[in-house]
Amino acid sequence: MMAKILEGRPAKMGFRMPAEWEPHEQCWMGWPERPDNWRENAGPAQETFARAAIAISKFEPVTICASAKQYPNVHKLMEHQTNIRVAEMSMNDSWFRDMGPTFITRKVESGIEKQTIAGIDWQFNAWGGIYDDWSLDSDVAKKIFEIERIPRFSHKMVLEGGSIHVDGEGTCITTEECLLNPNRNPNMSKLEIENELKDFLGVTKVIWIPRGLYGDEDTNGHVDNLCCFIKPGVILLSWTDDEKDPQYERSVEALSVLTRSVDAKGRHLEVVKIHVPGPLYMTQEEADGVLSTGHAVAREPGTRLAASYVNFYVANGGVVAPAFGDDRWDKEACAVLRKAFPDHEVVMVEGAREIVLGGGNVHCITQQQPVRPS
């Protein structure tokens, strides 16, 4: 049975995108393998993806999607993990936050219409074309909807999941650097993009932050590397105390916007700071381990890594966050997250440097599927 394609505007039908801390049915992940993005044929990255999947599976079910070539290895690797299933799926790369679906839900009052969950299949163009072929990635969201028999809204706007964060109560945060970049939707104005976010995510307020994290050129400044909601009215912001760090100006700029903003409920936003690691840079050895094919963005030694502790995943009762091997800031980030999520267990995933070498982190490689409202 094909998943039904829905027409109209989800918000007008009572749909909204839930906050990430609301209950999940499961988490979706891909599996890295392309040698022109991941060093050493993706071996080190696969180890970190596996650690992240196992950490999340302690809190909620995980589905890992792997190519036909990788499926036997991943299945064998995970066969003793009782809360992880492995599905075969073709893809160009493994960033499920961005090419995967956005799930939306609604409560049904009358009981006449029983569809309480749906999805949005946005257009995907590989972050403005940093790969030359993303045809397989473009179908990932559709495949997930088919597997789960969830109807979908098909949207013509280019949007990645990492470019938005919502509080579940009507507020969305995003960056101008990404959504207004001419490599996404050059024929749409800021107001038109904002109206689409409102009509499809069920939000009534969009807060625009000028720029994302320094060095996050692959995604053109996704908001999920810079800041996120940790509960309604409270935002966690990547920060540095070093005024000479180019990140300082961006963090101060974001802080200024956020502290002057109110959310959809009229609340003034509280901002909690979390220090960035490092700064961290790509080594010659790491760059040499990436195959140069001309089909993907080049990985150059000395490049500042877009490393951020904000790029974490909130599971059912857990927070799974990156650890970069930076003892000082890893420990402080863990303490900040424990205070921010007192009812959650915080798990730091060792080796997260391997993910940031490819252009993202734990939040970027995961996609939550919310529980269907009864």
Structural summary, described in words:
This protein has helices at residues 43-57, 71-78, 96-99, 126-129, 140-148, 176-179, 190-201, 246-259, 284-288, 327-340, 353-358; strands spanning 5-6, 24-29, 62-66, 84-88, 102-105, 117-123, 152-158, 165-166, 171-175, 205-209, 227-231, 234-239, 270-275, 313-315, 318-322, 345-349, 366-370. The protein has one domain (5-370): L-arginine/glycine Amidinotransferase, Chain A (5-stranded Propeller), CATH 3.75.10.10. It is globular. The protein is built from eleven helices and 17 strands. It has 374 residues and is an alpha/beta fold. The chain has a four-stranded mixed sheet, sandwiched between helices.
In short:
Keywords: Hydrolase. By secondary structure, the chain is α/β, with parallel strands linked by helices.
Fill in the keyword field for this structure.
alpha/beta, L-arginine/glycine Amidinotransferase, Chain A, 4-stranded mixed sheet, 22% strand, globular, 374 residues, 25% helix
